[in-house]
Amino acid sequence: MKHIIIDNDLEVEIEALSQFKTYRNVIYGYPTEHRNNLLIDFVLERAHQTDNDQSVYLIQPEHKKMDDVIRNGRPLDIWKEIPNIECYLRVKNQSDSTMLIIIWFQDEFAFPIDPIIIEKIKTIPYRKLCFYFDPF
């Protein structure tokens, strides 16, 4: 797979795919929706720093409940996890010198990209979000 469909009908080139274990930097504790949201914010911040001015789009992960126990009676303490692998896909359209970073989470390392994610990628409004780069 060298190309992928985005924005319903636009074929763009896959330039790079990076993947990491989602909780690789978590030293202690357990996942909660609050902690997951902090982790997602960190992932987005890192993507913006690493790729400078390039546009970044996040496909929001689902927070899956790990058990029914509410610790200390607070909703922040409900154990929830997001998929185990964070994925960064850089796509570009050479014909108009545009680029976009797409971030998502899935249960297994790609390839393949999770079919549900492929369907979500197709709906990303690339033409509105893309970053124009200088090809020279």
Description:
With 136 residues, the protein is an alpha+beta fold. It has one domain. The protein has helices spanning 33-50, 115-122, 126-129, and strands at 3-6, 10-21, 56-58, 64-70, 78-81, 85-93, 98-106, 131-132. It has 3 helices and 8 strands; from the N terminus they run ββαβββββααβ. The radius of gyration is 17 Å and the shape is elongated. The strands form 2 sheets. Strands 1, 2, 3, 6, 7 and 8 form a 6-stranded mixed beta sheet that branches. A two-stranded antiparallel sheet has the order 4-5.
Number of domains: 1
What percentage of amino acids are in beta strands? 35-45%
Number of helices: 3
| Major sheet description | 6 strands, mixed
Looking at the structure, what is the overall shape? elongated
Ends apart, CA distance between termini? 26 Å
The count of DSSP E runs of length 2 or more, i.e. the number of strands, is: 8
Broad structural category: alpha+beta
Order of helices and strands: EEHEEEEEHHE
What fraction, in percent, of the residue positions are helical? 10-25%
Mean pLDDT across all amino acids: 84
Low-confidence stretches: none
Concise structural overview:
The protein has about 140 residues and is of the alpha+beta class. The protein has helices at about 35-50, 115-120, 125-130, and strands at about 5, 10-20, 55-60, 65-70, 80, 85-95, 100-105, 130.
